[in-house]
Amino acid sequence: MLKEKILKNLNEQITAEHYASNLYLSMSSWCTAKGLDGAARFLNLHSREELEHMHRLINYVNETGSQAIIDAIPAPPNSFKDIRDIFEQTFKHEVHITNMINKLVELTLAEKDFSSFNFLQWYVAEQHEEEALFKGILDKIEVIGLDGRGLYMLDQEIAKLCNTKQ
C-alpha cells in the first residue's frame, strides 16, 4: 500500500496526464481545421502517448494495492493564435508536468518509498525527452518562420517527427 501523501500525488499525476492527452487532442483538431496535417498527426500521436503515461500510472497504483482515482478534468482550450502558440503552450505544459514529476520524486525520497522512486525514474527520463522535443519544435519555428512557405515547411518538419514517435 502506498502512503496517503504519495497516493494523492500519484492520483494528481494521473489527472494531469489525462488532461495533457485532451489538450494535445484539441490542438490536433485545431491543426486539422487549419490544414496543418503534419502537426495534427504529430499531436494526435502525442495525445495517445499521454494516455499511455496515464495508464502506466494507474497500473502502478493499482499494483500496490491502492486505488487509482480517475478524476474530472477541465476542458482544454480549443482556439489558438497560430502554430507557434500551440507549441509554446505544449512546451510550457511539459515543463509543468516535469515540475510535478520532480516533486513526486522528491516526496518518494522523503517518505523512503524507494519502489515508487524507482518507478518514477522512467517519467524523469521521459520528461527530459518531452521538453527537448518541444523546445526543438520551437527552435524550428524560429528558424523557418510562419510566413508563406515557411508554415508549409514547418508542418512537413513536424510530420517527420511522427516517424520517430511510433
Q: What is the compact description of this entry?
A:
The chain is mostly helical and 166 residues long. The protein contains 5 helices and no strands.
Description:
The chain is mainly alpha-helical and 166 residues long. It has 5 helices and no strands. Helix 2 packs parallel to helix 5 and helix 4 runs antiparallel to helix 5. The longest helix is centred in the last third of the chain and has 31 residues, at 114-144. The mean pLDDT is 96.
Topology:
Layout: H1 4-33, H2 37-63, H3 83-110, H4 114-144, H5 149-165
Helix pairs in contact: 1-2, 1-3, 2-5, 3-4, 4-5
Throw out a few tags for this protein.
single chain; 166 residues; mainly alpha; Ferritin; 5 helices; 80% helix; elongated
Q: Approximately how much helix is present in the residues?
A: over 70%
Query: CATH homologous superfamily, by name?
Result: Ferritin, core subunit, four-helix bundle
The main pleated sheet reads as: none
> Based on DSSP secondary structure assignment, what is the total number of beta strands?
0
Distance between termini? Answer: 34 Å
Tally of domains: 1
Number of helices: 5
CATH class: Mainly Alpha
Approximately how much beta-strand content do the residues carry?
under 5%
Low-confidence stretches: none
The CATH architecture can be given as Up-down Bundle
What Rg is obtained from the alpha carbons, in whole angstroms?
A: 17 Å
| String of helices and strands | HHHHH
